[in-house]
Amino acid sequence: MVITGIDEVTDATFAAEVLGADGPVLVDFTADWCPPCRMLAPVLTEVAREEAGRLRIVQLNVDTNPETQAAYGVLSMPTLVVFRGGEPVKTMVGARAKAKLLRELADVL
């Protein structure tokens, strides 16, 4: 499930796209079979548009990219991990409303 306006990363591109990024990057660990992931998709699309320039949002399909999922111990979908300077700085598990997500992101933006 590709979310409009959000780039997809893979095991092969994760280091360059996420760990090597200048600013904060929110990675949406997702799966096509995951109903909460589908619920979260429009929220992420809105946040990506509103926070463009301050936060990059990318998605990683865990079914086709198991190495990155395993490397960060992601067991539940959706899991949102914010990376800054190549390190995970915040992890959130489960779908959430836009207002709640923005509140949770306030300290990392």
Condensed summary:
This is Thioredoxin. With about 110 residues, the protein is of the alpha/beta class.
Structural overview:
The chain is α/β, with parallel strands linked by helices. It contains four helices and five strands. The chain has helices at residues 14-19, 35-50, 66-71, 98-105, and strands at 7-8, 25-30, 56-61, 79-84, 87-93. Strands 1-3-2-4-5 form a five-stranded mixed β-sheet, with helices on one face. A hairpin with a 2-residue loop joins β4 (79-84) and β5. It is globular, with a radius of gyration of 12 Å. InterPro entries: Thioredoxin, Thioredoxin-like_sf, Thioredoxin_CS, Thioredoxin_domain. Keywords: Disulfide bond, Electron transport, Redox-active center, Transport. This is Thioredoxin. Residues 1-109 form the Thioredoxin domain.
Descriptive tags:
109 residues; alpha/beta; 4 helices; 5 strands; Thioredoxin-like_sf; Thioredoxin; Thioredoxin_CS
